[in-house]
Amino acid sequence: MVRRTVQMNEELAGRTRVEIVMGTIRQRIAGRSLTPGARLPSVRGLAASMKLSTSTVVDAYERLVAEGAILSRPGSGFYVANQAAPFALAEAGPKLDRAVDPFWISRQSLEADVSDLKPGCGWLPPAWLPGEGMRRALRTLARAEGAALADYGSPLGLPPLRQMISRRMGERGIEASPDQILLADSGTQAIDLLCRFLLEPGDTVLVDDPCYFNFHALLRAHRAKIVGVPYTPSGPDLELFAQTLAEHRPRLYITNSAIHNPTGATLSPVTAHRVLKLADQFDLTIIEDDIFADFEITPAPRLAAFDGLERVIHIGSFSKTLSASARCGFVAAKPEWVEGLTDLKIATSFGGGRMAAEAVLNALSDGGYRKHMETLRQRLSRAMTEVSARLKNLGITPWLEPQAGMFLWCRLPDGIDAADVARAALEKRIVLAPGNAFSLSQSATNFMRFNVSQTLDARVYEVLGDVLRRVAP
């Protein structure tokens, strides 16, 4: 039986010998031929029966111990761990009864099976990312000195990476020395640190309407009062922006300027200058989230470039263009704020993720990254054209045709609620992003955000067409 199982596993391309052993044991546990508390075959016995080395079996057993599938009893052997209650298949299904809020989209996207389609998610498919570049970066990291693999990072973060970020920001007109840059574990953690540093519960924060839905969730976690201002193709509505500042006196304004999420709009120079004048008038601090910078074909105005990091705090990360697994972001701010943020980072996460920073530095230093981004921008441009045309054929109309990036902000046919469409599509294992999750005023009922890199499969359009016919008034 063991040999038949090994033959079956060996047919799975890419499996290592250790993975074959682990798969064999897992299958025997699942098939109840090894029950909870049962003793596993000895290392030598299993190695002989599977024609493998004893070191391979030991490695497999140790990994199974680490994941909790089996237990090691020194001097006695390895035993099947007491298993949790059997997993009900129904639990794997989409939770259709949950409110379609920011957490709904995030959970459905992050928990989706590899076979599910995710037009509503906010990241590229793995095949669109520089996988080989990351592998080279990790191989370089594997040869690094012990401190890079085992020690805490410095509070500000890896100096060579901060120097590189400073240089890259300079290419976009933002002057920030490496000492003005603090590494974080992600763009989200960067905003979280800033909220901890700048806000007290009850403070008012201004956001675009619509805006990235996790801004809402994060600000609510900090017990902030959130107010929104309508977003236009050139930036926030300036008249309403000024009125909102006068009425609510917000402490912060959080926005994207280069490629806006979810609309894909680009801030105009005129709007940028007016926003900064109003910020100065009303003592407003601005957090400029620039995580989509490398998607740009033609650089857009940056508030931080015009402002010189006086009122504007600039943040970014590498999860969208490099790897979401290598969690690494950054904050660029005036020196006196970086000092306080560094103390706060030590208090909340101590030294930060040095290995991730080392891997990101290696990948960005690789000459292949710039070439990859040139190819990616062209690929996204083609996808934008294709997806826009196919959505229009279904009566789904883009709000604007973005200059770059991955998002299309689209209006559904009249009378159709995007949340109803999203729930119905989820039954077919397709994750969508309905508009009101992005809208504080809940004024985007018939809007939906599409990620063009995740919307190329014909099944998306088949399901959308069917669902639109079913929910049409």
UniProtKB/TrEMBL annotation:
| Single annotated GO MF | transaminase activity
Please indicate which superkingdom the organism of origin belongs to.
Bacteria
Starting at the broadest rank, the lineage of the source organism is: Bacteria, Pseudomonadati, Pseudomonadota, Alphaproteobacteria, Hyphomicrobiales
Q: Which Gene3D superfamilies match?
A: Aspartate Aminotransferase, domain 1, Type I PLP-dependent aspartate aminotransferase-like (Major domain), Winged helix-like DNA-binding domain superfamily/Winged helix DNA-binding domain
List each copy of the HTH gntR-type domain by range: 15-83
This protein's species is: Rhizobium lentis
**SMART domains per record:** HTH_GNTR
Which PANTHER family has this protein been placed in? HTH-TYPE TRANSCRIPTIONAL REGULATORY PROTEIN GABR, TRANSCRIPTIONAL REGULATORY PROTEIN
InterPro entries the record matches = Aminotransferase_I/II_large, HTH_trans_reg/aminotransferase, PyrdxlP-dep_Trfase, PyrdxlP-dep_Trfase_major, PyrdxlP-dep_Trfase_small, Tscrpt_reg_HTH_GntR, WH-like_DNA-bd_sf, WH_DNA-bd_sf
Protein name in UniProt: PLP-dependent aminotransferase family protein
Cross-referenced PROSITE patterns: HTH_GNTR
